[in-house]
Structures are given as structure tokens and as C-alpha cells.
């Protein structure tokens, strides 16, 4: 019998049927070869040659059962079943999925196969045709399909988690946005994570080259020790310390299985909370690592799974975003406060008079305000004191405040003999024509020493809280005279002034409304509290008094500005004049 490749002799012109069979044989996607009754390969397709590593045409004539089917000991795989021709000779089909064929280089190829007798009258004579598939390739493709399926399942699980946990995540986000105090925010976050996501929650923040434990929560509050009197905190578990170091150096989430410490070693924190496993998740946004979130579970709790990790990383991402916003706000607030202070002036040295001023920016805004104070000497030796507040909390308000302050200075210096009310009326006119500000409040006072320790004062109020005078014997009085409407409302309207004598040893206090009025307190109640606090603390140096009043009475959501003058006591004056 002639042994030949699948294609017939090129000298014999193929008919259409032969061409179709050849094309189907080539495109079958499986190895095929035919063997005769002696087991020699009489025909094969290119797939069989490629799978078995034979050059084209060199597989013909190979003893399929001796070379292709290794005997025991010739490879590490089990040998193929007994040569198939026994079954085929009886007209039966055969198949299997555990056969091993040897490639031309001697390596083993696991295959699934099937065989059938050649039909009678075929050009190759009696024998069989064998079809085989590369099982390892099939397994690899199945593995890739499984990986794609697992990835899609992970994405689906994550989508389901987003839907299922959105209310809880929203609660966390609101908790983190409710205050700009980072430590307070993180303490609240730790409490919300326990026991919803973990038995223990720990949050460490980066502070330069060191880290600080900022928040800690446990499902049993008494378990976590609270340092008292500087008592040292329990040591970190070594595995946790290493995981924190890796995270702070840029590593991703660390999943730890916690082994108990060796006998005789001091109890660490993980031992106290009975941690069996832990997730250490970076609080990271882009390239900045703000800290790490550690979640632990005890043996009685279910172990962390992939959904828990995804949820923990989402919590960490939102926390990092909140920390970045807090730090950006703090930086902007520092810039705003620095700009505001730069717009405020220094205080002059005035003989026989103590001066002090205090500015406290709002704690919950990053905007520049319109508050200002001023003190300057006039040509005749009198002292001008000013407190004012331009409407608004933005850079425009600060700009208009600066313009209004400078214009008031110019007008007061230009005609020092005018009453404060007349000067403020001219400021009204300038404000209307030059659009210095939409509206503003102010107090302008002029003080002149009487030569015996007291000071004469004339003042005018434009819609502003009245000055407060505290005498040396503890009598506090609001100077309600000289009250007029806001600046910029009716430019042509005359403004009144009032006069009084500030006795020796008395304190005069000018302030903005942030000191006496807030969302939770009316101005009447606020002024009552101011009078009582001023009496209680009048013994303090003037700088300390202003700072104390701002700290104790002020609304942290508003700027607070104060300027104060104190006349010397009679004894001090007599000592100075001898």
C-alpha cells in the first residue's frame, strides 16, 4: 500500500470534492492521522504535524503505536491504552481522554482522542483514522475563561456591594464631612467601623517621618487600654508593625494571619483584642499616603473575604479624600489668616496709654473677612481708634475693607479738628462716589489726654456694637451714645457724635459682632456675657484680656476683632509725673 500525505500526487488534477475535503481537513482544528493494519502512519493533516512537532511530510511512515504511544517508563505519564487497532478491526469506534503522545523532541503531549475504522474502498486501504486534541491547551483556555469569569464575578460583586452598602458608606462620608477636625473625624469613623466591618479598628496618621495612633475602637470598649498619666501603650504585634511600615512606604493592602506571641513575651495590642487576622489598608490618594487603617477580627468572627477587602479599601479611599480636603482647607485658612493680618496695621506707641489688638479668624472658613481695627496719631497729638466690619467673607470684602480703612485714615488726618461723626459722613460720600464697599459698620473714636490721668473721648457709631468701658473699680458700661446707621446707606445724612471722659485706670474695648452674636446666641445675651467676662478678667494685661474674651465668647464660625485702650492708674500717673 502507498503511504502518502493527505494531498494526492500533484500530477493528478484534484477535483472539487478533493479540494473541499483537503480544506476541511486543514481547518479541522484537531490533529488527524491515518494508520494501516501495521500501525504505520499513512496520512496526516498539518495540525497533527504542528501538535507533534514534525516537519511537513516527516510524520508519514512513523510507527504510531511504538513512537507516538510511549510504553511505561518512556515518559512520566501513564501510557496510552492498548493499540486501538484491536477494537477497530472489529468495526468498533474507540475514544479516551488520558492518552499521551510523544512529540518529535521526546516531550509528552496529553491528548483526548477518538478513532474509527477507515471506510471500505478508500485509497489508503484498511486501517483507522485517529483524531486528537491537545488537552493541556484546552485546560489553559479553560483556565483563562475561568479567570475572566472570576474577574467578571469580582466586578459584579463590587457593583452589588456598591448598591448594598451605599447607605452605610453615605453615613461614613457624612460623618467625615461633619467637622474639619481630623482627629475628631477619625475617632468617629473608627466607631462606625466597629462592629460593622471589624472587631477592632485602628487608624495611624503620618506625621513627617513618624506616625501617630489617632483613633482606636473595639466592640468591647473596656478592652482597649486608655493611657493614664503618660502610661505607655501596649506594644505593636511584630507582624502589624512590619505591615504598617510597608504601607507607609507605598505598599498596598496587607492581609495578615496573626500568630500568638511566644510564651513569656509581654502582651501586645493584637493579643489584647484577640486578633486572629487583620487587614492593613493604606489611606492613600494618588501618590500621598496619609496613614493606614487596620481592621482585625477575632477567631469567633468570620474571616475577611474579597468583598470585605473591597469595602475596606473604599472606606480608606473616602477617608483619604476627607483628609486631603481637611489639609487643603487648613492650608487655605492659614493663607487667608496671614493675608487678613497683613491688611491690619500695627499699633502706635502712645505715652500714658496701653494699647492692644487681637484678630481671630473663623475656624470653619478658609475665606478672608472684612473685619479691621486701626489706631493712629493725629497731628494735634490725639489718638484715633477704629473698629469696623465690611459685609462679606471673601477676597472682595477684604479688598474693600482695605480701601475703606485707608480712606478713613486720610479723611481723619486731613481734618483732625472735625468730630468723628463729621468724618464718617465724609466717608459716606466717598464710599458712594468711589464704590468702596456695599455697606459696612464702624466705630471711630478720638482720645485726648486731659493731663491728669484721664482721657477725653469723642466717638461716633455707624451701625456697630457700642464700645464697652470698664472702670478700675469694676463698673462696666456700654457707651450707647453717638449711634447712627450703617455706612453707605444714606450718604447725605448727618452723623452725630458723643463725648465722655475715660477715667484713670479704665479700659476701653471696641470689638466686632463675632464676639457677641452667633447663630445660637442673640446680641443682647452676648453683650451681657461680654460685660460680665470683662469685669471678671479686667485685671489681666490688655493683650491677654483681648485673647481671653475672643477665646471664651467668640463664635468660631465668624472672625473676631478687638482693639482696647487702658489709661494708667492714678498712682502710676503720679509716679510718672514726679
> In the residues, how many domains can be counted?
3
**Which range best describes the helical content: under 10%, 10-25%, 25-40%, 40-55%, 55-70% or over 70%?**
25-40%
Which structural class matches the secondary elements?
alpha+beta
How many whole angstroms does the radius of gyration measure?
Answer: 45 Å
Mean pLDDT: 80
Low-confidence stretches: 1-12, 74-83, 572-578
- According to CATH, what is the topology of the largest domain? Phosphatase 2c, domain 1
Count of helix runs: 15
Assigned CATH superfamily of the largest domain: PPM-type phosphatase domain
Describe the main β-sheet briefly.
6 strands, mixed
Instruction: Classify the beta-strand content into a percent band.
Output: 15-25%
Record field, number of beta strands: 21
Q: What is the CATH domain class of the largest domain?
A: Alpha Beta
Distance between the termini: 145 Å
Shape: elongated
Q: What CATH architecture of the largest domain do you see?
A: 4-Layer Sandwich
What can be said about this structure in brief?
The chain is α+β, with helices and mostly antiparallel strands. It has three domains: 124 residues, PAS domain (Beta-Lactamase, 2-Layer Sandwich), CATH 3.30.450; 170 residues, Beta-Lactamase (2-Layer Sandwich); 234 residues, Phosphatase 2c, domain 1, CATH 3.60.40.10. 35% of the residues lie in helices and 24% in strands.
Amino acid at each position: 500500500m502507498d503511504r502518502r500525505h493527505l494531498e494526492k500526487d500533484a500530477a493528478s488534477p484534484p477535483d472539487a470534492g478533493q479540494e473541499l475535503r483537503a480544506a476541511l481537513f486543514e481547518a479541522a482544528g484537531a490533529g488527524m492521522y491515518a494508520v494501516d493494519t501495521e500501525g504505520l502512519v499513512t496520512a496526516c493533516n498539518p495540525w497533527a504535524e504542528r501538535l507533534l512537532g514534525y516537519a511537513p511530510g516527516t510524520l508519514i511512515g512513523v510507527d504510531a503505536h511504538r513512537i507516538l504511544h510511549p510504553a511505561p517508563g518512556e515518559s512520566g505519564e501513564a501510557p496510552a491504552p492498548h493499540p486501538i487497532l484491536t477494537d477497530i478491526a472489529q468495526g468498533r469506534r474507540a475514544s479516551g481522554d488520558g492518552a499521551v503522545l510523544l512529540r518529535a523532541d521526546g516531550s509528552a503531549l496529553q491528548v483526548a482522542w477518538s478513532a474509527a475504522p477507515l471506510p471500505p474502498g478508500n485509497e489508503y486501504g484498511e486501517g483507522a483514522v485517529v483524531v486528537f486534541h491537545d488537552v493541556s491547551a484546552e485546560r489553559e483556555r479553560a483556565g483563562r475563561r475561568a479567570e475572566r469569569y472570576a474577574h467578571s464575578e469580582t466586578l459584579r460583586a463590587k457593583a452589588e456591594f456598591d448598591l448594598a452598602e451605599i447607605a452605610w458608606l453615605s453615613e461614613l462620608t457624612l460623618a467625615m464631612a461633619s467637622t474639619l477636625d481630623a482627629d475628631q473625624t477619625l475617632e468617629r469613623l473608627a466607631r462606625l467601623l466597629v462592629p460593622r466591618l471589624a472587631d477592632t479598628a485602628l487608624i495611624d496618621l503620618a506625621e513627617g517621618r513618624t506616625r501617630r495612633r489617632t483613633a482606636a475602637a473595639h466592640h468591647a470598649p473596656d478592652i482597649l487600654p486608655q493611657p493614664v498619666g503618660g502610661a505607655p501603650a501596649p506594644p505593636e504585634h511584630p507582624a502589624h508593625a512590619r505591615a504598617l511600615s510597608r504601607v507607609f512606604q507605598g505598599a498596598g493592602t496587607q492581609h495578615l494571619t496573626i500568630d500568638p506571641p511566644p510564651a513569656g513575651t509581654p502582651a501586645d495590642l493584637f493579643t489584647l483584642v484577640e486578633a486572629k487576622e487583620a487587614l492593613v489598608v493604606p489611606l492613600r490618594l494618588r501618590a500621598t499616603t496619609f496613614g493606614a487603617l487596620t481592621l482585625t477580627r477575632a477567631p469567633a468572627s468570620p474571616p475577611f473575604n474579597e468583598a470585605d477587602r473591597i469595602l475596606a479599601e473604599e472606606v480608606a479611599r473616602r477617608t483619604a479624600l476627607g483628609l486631603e480636603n481637611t489639609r487643603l482647607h487648613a492650608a487655605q485658612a492659614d493663607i487667608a489668616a496671614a493675608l487678613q493680618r497683613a491688611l491690619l496695621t500695627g499699633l502706635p506707641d502712645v505715652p500714658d496709654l496701653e494699647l492692644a489688638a487681637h484678630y481671630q479668624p473663623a475656624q470653619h472658613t478658609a475665606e478672608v473677612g472684612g473685619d479691621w481695627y486701626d489706631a493712629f496719631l493725629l497731628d494735634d497729638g490725639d489718638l484715633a481708634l477704629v473698629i469696623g466690619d465690611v459685609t462679606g467673607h471673601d477676597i472682595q470684602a477684604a479688598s474693600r475693607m482695605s480701601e475703606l480703612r485707608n480712606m478713613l485714615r486720610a479723611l481723619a488726618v486731613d481734618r483732625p479738628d472735625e468730630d468723628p461723626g463729621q468724618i464718617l459722613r465724609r466717608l459716606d460720600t466717598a464710599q458712594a462716589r468711589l464704590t468702596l464697599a456695599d455697606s459696612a459698620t464702624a466705630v471711630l473714636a478720638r482720645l485726648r489726654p486731659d493731663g491728669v490721668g484721664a482721657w477725653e473721648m469723642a466717638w461716633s457709631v455707624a451701625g456697630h456694637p457700642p464700645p464697652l468701658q470698664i472702670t478700675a473699680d469694676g463698673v462696666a458700661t456700654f457707651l450707647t451714645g453717638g449711634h447712627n446707621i450703617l455706612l453707605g446707606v444714606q450718604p447725605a445724612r448727618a452723623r452725630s457724635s458723643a463725648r465722655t471722659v475715660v477715667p484713670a485706670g479704665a479700659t476701653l474695648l471696641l470689638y466686632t459682632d463675632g464676639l457677641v452674636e452667633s447663630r445660637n446666641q442673640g446680641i443682647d445675651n452676648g453683650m451681657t456675657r461680654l460685660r460680665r467676662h470683662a469685669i471678671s478678667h479686667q485685671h489681666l494685661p490688655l493683650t491677654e484680656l483681648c485673647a481671653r474674651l475672643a477665646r471664651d465668647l467668640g463664635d468660631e464660625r465668624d472672625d473676631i476683632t478687638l482693639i482696647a485702650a487702658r489709661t494708667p492708674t492714678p498712682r502710676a500717673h503720679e509716679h510718672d509725673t514726679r
